Amino acid sequence: MFEKYQSVLPFLIPLIYPESTMSIIKPHKLGIIAGPGSEFFTGKVVKHLRRLYVDRYAKVNDALTKRHGITGEELLRQVTLLDDLDSKKIPTGKLPSQFHCPDVTINVKYTRFANGEEKAEIIDPVRGLHVYIIHDVSNSFPIKVAGLEDPRPLSVNDHLMFLFTTIDAVRLAGAESITLVLPTYPYARQHKKAGREALTASLFARFCEELGVARIITLDIHSREIENAFSTCHLENLHGSYQTLIALRKLIDFSDPDLVVVSPDTGAVNRNKFYAQGLHRPLAILYKERDYSVVSKDAKNSNIKSINLLGDVNGKTVLMADDMIATGGTLIIAMRELKRRGAKKIICIVSLPFFNGSAIENFDAAYKEGVFWRIIGTNAVFQGKDLLEKEWFVQADVTELFARVISRLHHGRSISPLLDNRKFIQRLVDTSQANPNAPVPADKDMFSD
Question: Domains of the chain (ranges plus CATH)?
Answer without folding.
Answer: 241-397 (3.40.50.2020)
